[in-house]
Amino acid sequence: xxxxxxxxxxxxxxxxxxxxxxxxxxxxxxxxxxxxxxxxxxxxxxxxxxxxxxxxxxxxxxxxxxxxxxxxxxxxxxxxxxxxxxxxxxxxxxxxxxxxxxxxxxxxxxxxxxxxxxxxxxxxxxxxxxxxxxxxxxxxxxxxxxxxxxxxxxxxxxxxxxxxxxxxxxxxxxxxxxxxxxxxxxxxxxxxxxxxxxxxxxxxxxxxxxxxxxxxxxxxxxxxxxxxxxxxxxxxxxxxxxxxxxxxxxxxxxxxxxxxxxxxxxxxxxxxxxxxxxxx
Amino acid sequence: xxxxxxxxxxxxxxxxxxxxxxxxxxxxxxxxxxxxxxxxxxxxxxxxxxxxxxxxxxxxxxxxxxxxxxxxxxxxxxxxxxxxxxxxxxxxxxxxxxxxxxxxxxxxxxxxxxxxxxxxxxxxxxxxxxxxxxxxxxxxxxxxxxxxxxxxxxxxxxxxxxxxxxxxxxxxxxxxxxxxxxxxxxxxxxxxxxxxxxxxxxxxxxxxxxxxxxxxxxxxxxxxxxxxxxxxxxxxxxxxxxxxxxxxxxxxxxxxxxxxxxxxxxxxxxxxxxxxxxxxxxxxxxx
Lengths: 280, 287
Fold this sequence. Notes:
Chain A has 280 residues and is α/β, with parallel strands linked by helices.
């Protein structure tokens, strides 16, 4: 089963929930954690995995064999991203604009274009004390997160529990990380910003037809409007984590909540049971 | 005219709360919200929308089921795994048009895509350019570029001294789009290991694009040891720490009231943010 942990707003506690859920469940059944927040992956800070395998993530970009090229200009005409420009005597390529669709190399009448891989990130695999760990890391300066997320998702196991830590927001990287999961947990905080972004995240997850539930973190900090919204929309609030300086301090030091405060494991197991009950 | 962009790498460090306060403190500016997929700045600024515009961007393939012979070529060639059962998943489709070109029976067409809206609004602190990317849409980078371009045009027309923009979290496409060519980046971090890790990456992006940066440590007192680590790191990187702001729930209280904290209270937080703006303004005038 795949559970994704998303939020809309950043910094609401996705990483806290994903790592503590994995930590609390691991003695009961096999758990795999996929950190798909490839722009800013943080789960490794908490779980301290031993990385045993690394794989570069490459996107195919065109390479032109000038000896074969007739400079007909078709490739530049068909490229939807303006990643090629054809001059009378040569072809200029702008690899950072290329999405790697493959149209130019397939359609080139002279068969002058081949695809070569350009590295934009890396996927790392390892073990974190009984948790199967996979994370993606976008290279600094690169724009396209989705191919890295897609690669991380390829490592999702078919059995056991798979937990996905999703990037913040509501656009394409979020969709890439969430789609295909059986349940989506939306972590929010009871503030106007938290509510505004929760509503957007709910719309996104509903668009994907994935059942969802909410975790309210730092309960007590703002107002009651998140709870009111969830009641009105019939969204189950599966876990409430109180505002607590002890929790914040553990987080600041990179300690998983369920490890630093073992009493909290029970509430993450209840969260897991709550999800299973909904899906039955 | 100088353009300040506020970034953080990690989400939830306080970018928007600080931008709201800078909006109240800085005179003579245009505001821009470059976080187009989870915009929050409007919750502090109560904008009155003056102009609403559609954002059309990219295309999506559509298969005409009457014409389709289910030959299997398009799902085979699509690099984005967007075609399943001879239907295009508009969310996965990147609009490259490859399928449309290779379909032997011309059953595929490309449709223009309404990906969101952008707005020009009035706020009590000056004009705001903001946007709303459609649910599950792509091209957030292009929408960010559009927001910045509009903010720049407006600032030029009004002879404004500053543009202050609230950036998105992360380091990818929309961040690069918010950052490239800006005069200065303010990086808001927090003294957590995640905050430090993400600060290092977003500072790397600033370097990559040649934008000078200042750092602000928000909630510095939740872990003073980590705050010192950030200061040591910044010293090594020759990046100025422009402010250390204490943790205070008054920031959330102000948010609940829909106000920037500097307007809401004269707390230590507000005083530090005022100093922060003085430092930023000084830096912008010498850049």
